[in-house]
Amino acid sequence: MQSLNHQYFAALLEEQRLKQSAFDEQIQLELLGLTEPETAKDHRQEYMKYLANRILQINNLMEQWLNAMEMDWAL
C-alpha cells in the first residue's frame, strides 16, 4: 500500500508540473498580446481558470497526503 501512495504522490507532482507549465505558458502568451480573436481570448481565460483550479486541487491533495504521512510517522 505504501508504494501505491508514493506512486499516487509522484503522479500528482508530475501533473502539477505539467499544469503549472501550461499555466505559465498561457500567461506569457497573454502578456505578449498573442490573443487576437475574442473567442480565443475567452477560451484562453477558461483554460487558465481550469489550470489554476486543478493546480489548487493538487496542492490541497498533496498537503493532505503529507499531513497524513506526518501523522503516520508520529505514531
Description:
The protein is elongated and about 55 Å long. The chain has 2 helices and no strands. The two termini are 17 Å apart. It is mainly α and 75 residues long.
List keywords for this structure.
mainly alpha
Give the overall shape, derived from the CA principal axes. Answer: elongated
Q: How many H/I helices?
A: 2
Largest sheet: none
What's the end-to-end separation, in Å? 17 Å
The helicity comes to over 70%
Mean pLDDT, nearest integer? 84
Return the structural class. mainly alpha
Output the helix-strand order: HH
Radius of gyration (Å): 17 Å
Oligomer: single chain
Low-confidence regions: none
Strand segment tally: 0
The fraction of residues in strands falls at under 5%
How is this structure best summarized?
The chain is an all-alpha fold.
Write the layout of secondary structure elements.
Layout: H1 2-31, H2 38-74
